[in-house]
């Protein structure tokens, strides 16, 4: 006769008199959904021993069975909604990603290139992309001669798209299992030395192609002495310039989706360059802004040529050494001006957190990509000595900044009394 029943769902222990043994019986569900009874003969000779042995059997039964798990996963994927590679981008955009327009265009290109590659090999569904497929694609990219930076960027972009759609379409994180980074990764563009900076400023004044001269002068000043990216400098608007506080407050295009803003002091070269331009309520550099919007390369190429002429090189190594692939992107480019700004600011005493405020990046990014470890040991250029760490509004004399702080701390009535004394 069956003995006392255990808790519901935990199986039953009973004594089989005809065999003289305690038995443990429970129900299992097969991968195909059918339920069946399983009976196991116990070695116990008493009811108490049988209960203890049944618990051990129960733990073993409940342990994940690899074959069963694989069948369950396969069944989930079989029943999941199909996702053609051609539709992946549309569904990703519907998830409302926070990246900016430029970054989204880069993601779309990375996905489009992969889809073309995969479809050429008969893969048309996102669910059919395996870890081996992802690894093979990235290896093909690497063999095509891309830089380590581009390799990592493409890998991370595709990984983000797959993770975003994983829950809805039961996709595996196939990109997460691929190598994170290729060796020989070169970080950032090189900054200019003091001599190279002086040469650059001379070229800005003498290059016959740079017309209107005042706008090109301001563009270079905003990058070199303000740390703005080329696009931010070319499209900056006058409301971002707070002359009373002595700062430029703007939201970089690259981090606009995250709401990250930057506050940078107006150094004398920037003030002089902006002072030579007609003030309005719109773009600071209307001619260059229109040129940039027709094609960023129209503004980028002249700046790159100026920087490389000032540096005396593009920064690409000669020969076929392994580093040649990594440095295929020139070490000196328009972004070198932003790197120069960060390096000079660090020389003047700015911390990583203060660099982050001035560049609109995270502290880690600012320290990692924008500060040259060798050049930072030297003294800052004269125009950067007014960058007072911790005071984004201290572009003018330190005394003026201190007086402004004091005035902010005093009651309005006290400020009025002081002004009356000064007038009398």
Describe the structure.
The longest helix has 22 residues, at 148-169. The N and C termini lie far apart (113 Å). This protein is 49% helix and 8% strand. It has 18 helices and seven strands. The strands form two sheets. It has a four-stranded antiparallel beta sheet, covered by helices on one side. A three-stranded antiparallel beta sheet has the order 5-6-7. The protein has 424 residues and is of the alpha+beta class. The chain folds into four domains: 2-78, no CATH class; 85-177, DNA polymerase, domain 1 (Orthogonal Bundle); 194-384, Orthogonal Bundle (hpI Integrase, Chain A); 397-424. It is elongated, with a radius of gyration of 33 Å. Helix 8 packs antiparallel against helix 10, helix 11 packs across helix 12 (297-311) and helix 15 (352-359) packs across helix 16 (363-369).
Q: What is the CATH class designation of the largest domain?
A: Mainly Alpha
* Largest sheet report: 4 strands, antiparallel
Q: Biggest sheet: strands side by side, in what order?
A: 1-2-3-4
The tally of strands reads: 7
N-end to C-end Cα span: 113 Å
Helix content: 40-55%
Stretches with pLDDT under 50, minimum 5 residues? 319-327, 389-399
> What would you give as the CATH superfamily of the largest domain?
Intergrase catalytic core
- The appropriate CATH architecture of the largest domain is Orthogonal Bundle
Strand residue percentage: 5-15%
- Helix and strand content put the structural class at alpha+beta
